[in-house]
Amino acid sequence: MTDAVRARRPGGRTARVRSDVLAAVEAELAEHGYDGLTIDAVAARSGVHRTTLYRRWKTVAGLLVDLLAAGADDSWEPADTGSLEGDLIAVNREVHAALTARPSITQAVIAASFRTTEAAEALTRFWEDRYARTALVVERAVARGEIPAGVDAHQLLLTATAPLYHQLVLLRKPMSRSEADHHARVAAASVR
Amino acid sequence: MTDAVRARRPGGRTARVRSDVLAAVEAELAEHGYDGLTIDAVAARSGVHRTTLYRRWKTVAGLLVDLLAAGADDSWEPADTGSLEGDLIAVNREVHAALTARPSITQAVIAASFRTTEAAEALTRFWEDRYARTALVVERAVARGEIPAGVDAHQLLLTATAPLYHQLVLLRKPMSRSEADHHARVAAASVR
Predict the structure, then answer these.
(1) Taking CB atoms and an 8 Å limit, are B171 and A127 in contact across chains?
(2) Terminal-residue alpha carbon distance, chain B
(3) Do A170 and B165 make contact, defined as CB atoms within 8 angstroms?
(4) Which of A96, A131, A159 should we substitute to test contact with B (largest number of B Cβ atoms within 10 Å)?
């Protein structure tokens, strides 16, 4: 997210301050988790004065909400591999990489969502946006005549991606990339 | 879980104290969540003296760990409906009921697992036990000749159940019982 946040807002001091602050939030969150995230640490890492942070973001939760908002308005879209199965495998590999990164921002944000309502709401909005964009893989498959129109894109994406979240976040067990691929294949086969 | 805990340990004062305390933990957790769970409230509700609670369970996390341990050693096993699809639908309806109960003990325990390592470890053990028992639906299907031997039971159960956890716990969106049934059907079809 960091590079995307930086690249997207080339101009303006306000935009630069935001991108520096959010990059610092991301780094602190990854290193120390939500419990270790403090306004002072973000100030020290970003070089932005703490009074600016308090004025603009108010709380640690406010910083996290803005980090997720910045992620949602980036230009991400799912890879176009030419087949539904290939597209779903690519999606699952991205989810797998995000959840198994050490440290994982995604895991830290999920944990934070169980601490504050604001973080939970921001994460819900972020995922709604991501799942809506990912529905493009279904639209492309319908346009190619690969699957019938009327397939429920959200249900299909749940079949593909939910096993990764359940295993790696809630069950707290490892999952290999080939197992992640398997769940993408099961999803693709379910609508053929 | 409460009734099972009670029924299983008919004799002994120590066993009775434990079942009264765990019933109180469950009720407090459901009403107030992990943040609202206190030794004093459990003492008041169970009628067991707080010094006993501190001596035997030490902390609120200790109480939660014991609640999950009690759930794991009960006699639960998956319903036998005569078909893999029927069995998976029955499993998904149980998961759906547990996650959509108001209040939901399961949702409260999952939230607690992001607060303390002890709760996370206890929940991991509880689920390992439950998924291992649920593998019986796959063994029965193989024995009936409905599916080939060698099907990965855990992957199959992830395909069935993970969408419910992802949608209802992490995405924090509703899911109907018929959608839960759909994911059981997708899982059953994936191994035929």
Answers:
(1) yes
(2) 34
(3) yes
(4) A159
**Is the residue at B90 inside a domain?**
yes
Q: Say if the Cβ atoms of B111 and A111 lie within 8 Å.
A: no
Q: At residue B52, what is the residue type?
A: T
Q: Is the dihedral of CA A78, A83, A85, A89 positive or negative?
A: negative
Write the pLDDT tens digit of every residue in B26-76: 999 888 888 789 999 999 999 999 999 999 999 888 898 899 888 777 788
CB contact at 8 A, A65 and A120: no
- Write the pLDDT tens digit of every residue in B123-143: 999 999 999 999 999 999 999
Burial of A36: CB neighbours in 10 Å, binned 0-12, 13-18, 19+: exposed
The ipTM of this complex is 0.88
Q: Which positions in chain B touch A34 (Cβ < 8 Å)? A: none
Distance CA A143, CA B11 (A): 67
Q: Flag whether A104 is in a domain.
A: yes
A110 and A182: one domain? yes
What are the mean pLDDT values of chain A's consecutive 10-residue runs (192 residues total)?
50 88 92 88 96 93 87 86 98 96 87 89 92 97 96 97 98 98 98 92
Are both A144 and A172 inside the same structural domain?
yes
Q: Which H or E element spans position A144?
A: none
Range of the domain at A93: 84-190
CATH classification of the domain holding B147: 1.10.357.10
Amino acid at A147: I
